[in-house]
Structures are given as structure tokens and as C-alpha cells.
Amino acid sequence: MKNLSNIFLLLFLTLLSCSDNKTSLMIKVDDPKPVNFSLYNLNDKIINLDEFKDSYILVNFWATWCKPCVNEIPSLNNLNENFSSNDDFQVVAINIGQNKDVVENFLKSIDKVNFLILLDEEISLTDWNVQAIPTTFLLNKKGKIIYRVEGEKEWDSPEFISFINSVMYK
Known about the structure:
- By secondary structure, the protein is α+β, with helices and mostly antiparallel strands.
- It is 31% helix and 24% strand.
- It is built from four helices and eight strands.
- Mean pLDDT is 87; it is low at 2-23.
């Protein structure tokens, strides 16, 4: 009987460890470090992170061949639209490893994108520690990563909108 109890305890702990028991929609970064970028947009203009001082920035790393990344585009559009009257929040998507022509051709095949797209053709932003795509970071007004999350998300869900508001206005 004791072995059976141990088996149930082990099964319970295993199931508990596999559950999505997060209290936050994104993982809090305990030791925020400043990051930077200086990348071309689709109009061949170099955009620096410094241009977003005094704003929270949701930075999404993506690629056109990544189905979960593509699935996120409408919800990122909606999130950006939801905060469009707020100068304290910006959505920026950084395409990794693809050239401008590939990204532009892809964008012609979908509905509009109403947020800023930057190109990291050389995958030069290694200090961001992107392990998978999509990976999304929330930066504070000082340009430091304060939250991160990997995988496809519904950015326009009431939970994410409430979460972002709670971070910005705590």
C-alpha cells in the first residue's frame, strides 16, 4: 500500500509540474539589463531603441516561415490598435534572418500590419538571448527587459491588455 501511495504522490507531483500554474502571462526578468538595437525598417531608415525612450515597448521576434509568428500578427495589430492613443506603449516586431524583399512580399500577402517592423537580417541581436520564435519581450521606459515569453500568444486578449496596463500603471 505504501508503494501505491508513493506512486500516486509521484503522479500528482508530475502532473502539478506540467500544469500552467503561472500567475503572470509573461515571465518576470529578475535582473533587468538594458538592451539595444539599431536596425533598418522597411523604408530603409535606421531605427534605434533610444527613439522609444519614455515608452514601454513590446518587442516581438518573428520570421515569415514561422506559423505561430504569423498567427500572432492579427492579435499584435489589435493590441497596437488598443494602445494607439497611448504614447507610453509601442509594438515593434523584429524579423530575424530574412531580407527586406522576403518580408515585403510576405506582408503583401496578408492584411495590413499597423506596428513597426524592423529587419535583423544578420541575426545580430544575440544579447537578447532569443532561443525560439516567436519570443516577445516587454521593455520598461528605461529600455530594460522586464518580462519575456516564448510561443504564440493572443496579445489582444483581455488578460494581456490588463497585464500590460497593470505593468504600465502600477
